[in-house]
Amino acid sequence: MKWLFLVMVLGNAGFVAWQGFSAADAGVLQQPVYAPPVSERIYLVGEVRPDESDDVVTPVEQQPLTEADKVLASLQREVDKVSTEDDLLCPIVTLERNADTLTVMDVLRQQGLAFSERKATGKRDKYWLYISAPATAEKAQDIVAALKLKRIDSYVISRGDMKNRISLGLFSSKDRAEQAQASISEQSGMDVNIYAHQREVGLTELLLAEPITSERWESVMMALDFSKLLIKIEKNPC
């Protein structure tokens, strides 16, 4: 009986030991295994992942403007505006002779430019051609008669400091005065003088109704023959 009891005790001990080892092995096998969140898709090796940056980064052109960007844009607009305004002219055309005034008016109308007219006065350079006074008024009249035969217009000044001088004409251009001086001297065989001075004269000013670009104004000026005009042009920036 003792031997039977001993066998039963050893058998129970062995069973209990086996249960302990089994429980230990089961604990090891039941350790949690990592897995991605349920909402995250699992991609296989052969599958291509989409570019996640497209869903995250906003394109540069769609980025909202910062205050600094707005200020820079405003400054650029002002610079462009100033550049455009700097190119605009408000010219004033000043003329002395009525015939010249009518010529310029016609050109402005042909160019489709509206303008206003105002009267003014001003000093202009003048060049007077004359022959020095002879000893007497009678000799001065003889000179005028001789010039008339050569078809040269002249007359005798009868008063003032220039009395008895023979006047040959008044010129507004120095070049034209010098040309006339050479021609009359050659025809008459007499010395011809030029007296340069300034004289108060009546003027006509033409003002454009609206500003004009410098490029267009240059095209307007090309339609004028300056060699035939007594004209002064002020290119005033607006």
UniProtKB/TrEMBL annotation:
Residues covered by the SPOR domain: 121-197
Gene3D superfamilies linked to this entry: Sporulation related repeat
Pfam families reported for this sequence: SPOR
SUPFAM superfamilies the record matches: Sporulation related repeat
InterPro entries from the UniProt entry: SPOR-like_dom (IPR007730), SPOR-like_sf (IPR036680)
Record keyword Signal present: yes
Signal peptide region: 1-18
Keyword Signal: yes
GO terms assigned for molecular function: peptidoglycan binding
Keyword terms, alphabetized: Signal
Name of the protein: Sporulation related protein
Organism: Marinomonas communis
Organism classification: Bacteria, Pseudomonadati, Pseudomonadota, Gammaproteobacteria, Oceanospirillales
